[in-house]
Amino acid sequence: MRSKGNLLRATTVAALCVLPGAFSGAFAAEPGSPEPVQAIWKEQEFAFYYQSQTTFYSCPSLEAKLQRILQTLGARARVRVRAVDCQSGPVRMPRVTVTMTAPVEATPQAIAERDKGNSKRELAARVRGEKQDPEALTPFPAQWKRISLSRGGKLNLEPGDCELIDELRRMVLPRLAVRIVKDDTHCIPQQLTLGQPQLQVDALVALPKPDAPTDKR
Q1: What distance lies between CA 197 and its chain's CA centroid?
Q2: Overall pTM surpassing 0.70 (yes/no)
């Protein structure tokens, strides 16, 4: 017969063997699902100041890079970068304004939140002399897609983009239907990061219409 001390030690060891797997399962991101879900478009506009200690961009290059990343993450985005010295080359702390429409799952809460702003959007459209597109309010099929924000590929990310990816992770991704799967973005202040940023996400992306070309990323 085992003593109480031996039994306690055996129970503790067994618990320690089980806990790592249990915790990793609890915090692991869900993989991209092949099953389509119903989604709606969510409009939003926000601004932030981008400040880097190592890599500086011209206003047009920062606009193009951010817009390309947001489109890859499923958003229809327009990015504007403004700074006093925009015409003179790379800038230190530009103001970034993002106007975007991005998919979110068509939950009752998301639909109610969208419908609260319908009157304002209709008024703004009338002021601009535009008609609101009825398809903009119609649910559509979307899919969770695994996307890598890393060096290479169509995004043309480089080691110097580490701080930019880190800023997106903090300021922009929380506004999108995005689940972070892997985050190895470790930027060293005032030092050029030699390794490439490693950020993988599952993003909700609208499925192309049957007659539309497929964008393979």
Answers
A1: 15
A2: yes
Residue 58 falls in which region: left (phi positive, over 0), alpha (psi -120 to 50) or beta? beta
In 3D space, the residue among 165, 101, 171, 90 whose CA is nearest the CA of residue 137 turns out to be: 101
Task: Kindly report the length of the chain.
Answer: 217
pLDDT score for 1? 47
d(CA 149, CA 196): 10
- Residues 110, 113, 119, 125: is their CA dihedral positive or negative? negative
CA distance 168 to 100: 14
Please, are residues 49 and 154 in contact by the beta-carbon 8 Å criterion?
Answer: no
- Residue 134, class by beta-carbon neighbours within 10 Å (0-12 exposed, 13-18 middle, 19+ buried)? exposed
What pLDDT shows up at residue 193? 61
Tokens of 68: 């390309």
**pLDDT digits over 188-217, tens only?**
766 666 666 678 999 999 998 776 555 555
Between CA 141 and CA 205 the distance in angstroms is 9
Distance of alpha carbon 78 from alpha carbon 67, whole angstroms: 7
Quote the CA–CA distance of 197 and 175 in Å, as a whole number. 21
- Rounded CA separation 131/212 (Å): 24
